[in-house]
Amino acid sequence: MSRHPGHELDARARRLLRLLIAQYLVDGEPVGSRTLSRSSGLDVSPATIRNIMADLEEAGLIASPHTSAGRIPTPRGLRLFVDSLIELQPLPRDEMVRLQRELPPGPATVRDLVGNASVLLSAMTHFAGVVTVPRQTDFPLRHIDFVPLPDARVLVILVFSDNQVQNRVIQLAKPLEARDLEQAANYINEHFVGLRVDDIRAHLLRELREASSELHQLLARAVELAAASFAPQDEDVLVSGQTNLMAYSELGNLERLRELFDAFQKKNELLQLMETCAKAPGVRLFIGEESGFAALDGCSVVTASYGAQGRLLGAVGVIGPTRMAYDRVIPVVQATARLLSDALNRAATTL
Question: At 98, phi and psi to the nearest 5?
Fold first, then answer.
């Protein structure tokens, strides 16, 4: 998480800022100095509290909306709160049990698992749940078959270690006999099952360079077929519970919702953001314009990366208004990412 400077605040100012933000996150109303005076437990006058609030406002951490005498946190204030003032609690046992129950490894494909995670995150936070679906090429190959089609085309049947089956039609420069396709498939299945497609490509190319003349033709066919069959596929992102966001007054403007839902539908910017989050372990949090995407201004995005067998595969997260219970949402996202990783690891060991 990126940080805003807050070290210049003394303990009293930090305590008041924490109280103000905590109160605002609960009821969404501007918080006045009188409220803070009653709840702070500090032996200071209301005038002193007003002076401290004026200093916090000058620092850009709180703001006074319209003509209200109270203050609300700015995105910069929320950032300081999340980075250094928040007190995270472990996920309640009943919620952890629910996650464990509804994220089983079973015979499900990876897409099934991440789809469940997206729905769960939305249900547990009442925001939009977002999860990236990893590229299939991130998983080891279990089996490959080539079936000849007319016009030098080939049907490729790929079975991956996560139980996912993909059918792709590739176009070759010239047709190959069914016998040649069978030989190439047998060679790949015999030597490279259990490897990821990038590794298979690299091994085939190395063997082709070192091959004797009698193997060269077979390997050349296998390399050509592998290069066409293993072309990278676009990553996807699943979004659940978008309509939950209509319940929040902060996002209630119709034009604002239209832009947000349009971003969910097109997915390009959202996928770009989630891919960035997936590349680093741990929690990432963007408040308002920090995401860099105009459609998410006024929203907070909380994500955590997940993976299996030591590899980062994607990210899970939620999108909601900036006024969210970060102390609860962050542990939910963290736990979901951890349990999804555990489920993927368990599934991998049974294959």
Answer: -60, -45
d(CA 211, CA 3): 55
Q: Which amino acid is at 304?
A: A
- CATH class of the domain whose range is 11-85: mainly alpha
Q: How many Å apart are CA 18 and CA 220, to the nearest integer? A: 66
> Homologous superfamily of 93-134+236-349 in CATH?
GAF domain (3.30.450.40)
Q: What is the DSSP letter of 296?
A: G
Give SS3 for 43: coil
Q: How far apart are CA 302 and CA 290, in angstroms?
A: 12
For 132-177, the pLDDT digits (tens) are 988 777 778 889 999 999 998 999 998 887 777 888 898 988 888 9
Q: How many CB atoms lie under 10 A from the CB of residue 149?
A: 14
Q: Fold for domain 138-229?
A: Enolase-like; domain 1 (3.30.390)
Can you give the residue ranges of every domain in the chain?
11-85, 93-134+236-349, 138-229
- Judged against a pLDDT cut of 50, whether residue 2 lies above it is answered with no
Asked whether 19 and 85 are in contact (CB, 8 A), the reply is no
Of 240, 245, 277, whose CA–CA distance to 259 is shortest?
A: 245
Q: Which residue, chain included where needed, has tokens 């319940």?
A: 247
Three-state SS for 307? strand
pLDDT digits over 183-213, tens only? 999 999 998 888 888 888 888 888 777 766 6
Say which residue the tokens 């003032």 belong to.
85
pTM (global) more than 0.85: no
Say how far residue 312 (Cα) sits from the centre of its chain: 11
DSSP state, 83? Answer: I
d(CA 82, CA 74): 12
How many Å apart are CA 289 and CA 278, to the nearest integer? 20
Q: What is the chain's length?
A: 351
